[in-house]
Amino acid sequence: MSKTTEYEAVIGLEIHVQLATKTKMFCSCANVFGEEPNTLTCPVCLGLPGALPVVNARAIEYGLMMGMALECELAEHSIFHRKNYFYPDSPKAYQISQYDMPLCSGGRLGDVRLHRIHLEEDAAKLVHVGASGRIHGSDSSVVDFNRCGTPLAEIVTEPDLHSAEQARDWLTLLRVTLRQIGVSDVNMEEGSLRCDANVSVRPKGSSKLGTKTELKNMNSFRFLMQGINAEVARQTELKLAGKRVSQETLHFDPATGSLSPLRSKEEAHDYRYFPEPDLVAVAPTEGMLAAARAGLPELPAARSERYERDWSLPLDTARLFAFRPELGDYFEQAATAATEADPRVVANWLKDDLAARLGADADPAASNVTPQALAKLAGLVQARAVSSSAARQVLDRLVEAGGDPEAIIEGEGLGAMGDGDELAAVVARVIESHTAIAEQIRSGNDKAVGALIGPVMRETKGRADGGEVRKLILAQLGQA
Amino acid sequence: MTGVLDLTAAEAAARIRSGELDREALWSAYHERALSDRLHALSWVSDELNAPPVEDEAPLAGVPVAVKDLFCTNGIPSQAGSKILEGYKPPYTATVVERLISAGAPLLAKTHQDEFAMGSSTENCAFGPTLNPWDTGRVPGGSSGGSAAAVAAGLAPWAIGTDTGGSIRQPAALCGIVGLKPTYGAVSRYGMIAFASSLDQAGPFTRDVTDSALLLSAMVGKDPCDSTSLGLPEPVLLPSAADLRGIRLGVPEELTGEGIEPGVLKAFEATLALAEELGASVKRTRLPHAPHALAAYYLIAPAEASSNLARYDGVRYGLREPAENLTELYTRTRSAGFGAEVKRRVMLGTYALSSGYYDAYYGRAQKVRTKIAEDFDRAWGEFDFIVSPTSPGVAFELGAKTDDPWAMYLNDYCTVPVSLAGLPAISIPNGLSDGLPTGFQMAGPAFSENRILDAAHALEGAIGFDGSKARQ
Amino acid sequence: MLTREQVLHVARLARLELTDEELERMGEELSGVLDHIEKIGELELDDVAPTSHVVALENALRADEPRPSLARDLVLAEAPDPTETGFRVPSPGAGS
Ligand SMILES: [Mg+2]
Ligand SMILES: [Zn+2]
User: Fold this and answer.
1) What does B36-82 look like in DSSP terms, one character per residue?
2) Which of A24, A238, B5, B94 fits a 20 to 30 Å CA distance from B34?
3) Residue C83, min C-alpha distance to chain A (Å)
């Protein structure tokens, strides 16, 4: 609908990431997914009387690593607060979270500014079981506390996004980055990555923000886009109809793809935050910061730059290898092994030929083709020891059974023929068997040459070099 | 066998070690006493007829201990005096109780208390009030009234309780025994059912100062399960001082003026004179913000409590009322399970934290807390200890103050400032007023437990209080 | 003096259900206590830092090393309405 173009969407994301620590945020229960219900609990994560929380050092380290990777300002003095609310998924009836003194403030990733990153604990899982019979057959649920207390990092962006696509792309970038830092599995299906969106619309060009709504439960990239698109459309409709958008939390229904207001209990908005008296402040020491820094791998942006600088790869190739570390790692080994091959040639053989043969997200390191083999093959092509088309056949063999390119070329007789008599003879034979086309060429129609190259290549099983064949045909037909 | 019951815990321990006393005999004597509790001081008594085993070199030598209901004890009812936890058996034991048991003090009994330690009389106990052994028509004080009454009456050689605003010192004073509240962080809070987390601290109830030091020495220590625990910088030593030479006592006007019963004040002044005879210098001073301590305390403690008690929701343990939906589950369970005082404080604390009121109440109270701590810091430049009566009055009659919350809260008037500053303080028996015990409170800088115990030991000798009447 | 509405709101926040008399009484008692408490309003506290904790301690952290969790039967032993595997509660939104 063209009229919506008068409005632009303003979108901010709130991402919850489960940290891949060995234990929970405030107790020593194992932090693992998919165990039998209520088998990973203790007095602390069950909220038993008298139990006390103790902060997981690794969770703080991961928080600092995220802060460094996302260019945040790291707090010198950070504290935890209690966020009070009654719900069966919250055993203490408060969540230990951070309020006005988060571990990380500000920051950016790509062209999106971050507002903050804070640490908190995950809630338990409620499983609906329907009528129980116990309480007058009313509906009931069962609480599983295994997930309760899992370390969470909550990442809040500034409202710098303007479309569902942009949101998806940025979230993908965040996911790759976090996965490379190694602080989380960032798996949306398993819930280790959860994304809420704050959406508002405003007239294009206006700088003031409209009333925003909060979208929840969009637990896949597709749902995230569906939800945002639906809400932007809804709000735009309202504005166009001269109606006001009311601030509310909307629940996304994956089944219908529609959004419905969450039943808002009037007191839900009064969390009565206050400093958690059972914990002391976190004040990152030089040692803690150094450890976090040491834990940080090279991040996509830096890696992409390095590929452009050190291996003079074109931007898009450099990016591809930077954001798909498995390709990047393989490329670096191959390019280093390649003595006669130009890294750019190696890069092309990797991304165009090998990757294509292995399929979408396959890791080439897991294939039969060693980086050394790919490098050697690229070198042979560059040295014209084998034609590109023959080299592709060699690559097929490598993918099937691995091995050494040279050996395969030997064994299958795929070596280039150069301009020797053997090739001249094949050309002569082909010209004889295609008199009509030969005539056209004699009478100056160069385009017809192609029609003869094919048969020659077929006879030579692709060992001949296309350019060489062309020269020979033209020469033998007196067109050189 | 009554001879055994007249021994202090330290004496009993010494005789067991020297072989003069049989550990079994001590256990069965106290076990019998505990079973014949007529003060309703005990909420649970061990069913062990024989003394539980104890390590040979254990410092507490097998002298049994009673602990307040709110300390979690594995498989043993730990109810914090509340109906909402009636019969609740935890799957784990509080760190401090484990320390006592491994130090050689087997668990003899658990003691009644005000519900969730909210009270100064033990009348807020869901299982009935505890009586004062000096006059069974009167309260033992609270919230640790059961522990205080049990030790005073000789139902146990010694006991532990918790002190948030005075819950060890005030009942110790009203029952004529020694009660010590350590520096905040000296003793682990892990497994102690929380009232106000930033104030709660466990401490010993004993017949004399030497027992207090001995029991404390086994309680203190850093605990990896309590982020706020520090332990003590040096080991607790048995006190030996017989005089107070060179000791400077500060007597704050704010805690020794109006509001203190004449009889209590008289006993206090008499002890100040004794202190001077022992060589101490006694000087009047000021704690300008002390009069505001009660107000700050009754915002901070209820605020933390409102959050600490939110977990009692009928889902995982404790009482649960039938309900059609979640809201009913919560409101019915909590309304049926909590007593009047707990509801009052949960309401007060919830209000103090609720949006729009935080700054005016909770936030402001935290600033008052800062000023009170500064008052004490200033005092330490001039004095070794700040002394005052422990409680403004002696044990009052059952029911006398139950209808007037603030009148009840005033019991903590002298103890609360020390609590807000997180400082250590002891209450020692300070003679009788109208036949009822009064207490002498001595507070010192953080981690000055050893010096407090030494000075208290010297004073105790001079006062020569006789508590045997309560053990008849 | 707290209004009846304020008391009701706070009770709702605290998940307490008060009878009319209790509500009445609670309002009076809280107001009485607040009269005393509000005296701290007279103090000059503008540039005073709040104290939420007296412990001078930072970074009380725990190594990320798993310890055995509780056995499930023990975990469910005190549950008022247990199932085979967990804690039963009325479904959110049920019966209301
Ligand atoms: Mg959150
Ligand atoms: Zn746990």
Assistant:
1) T--SS-EEEE---SSPPP--TT-TTTT--EEEETTB-BTTB---TT-
2) B94
3) 8
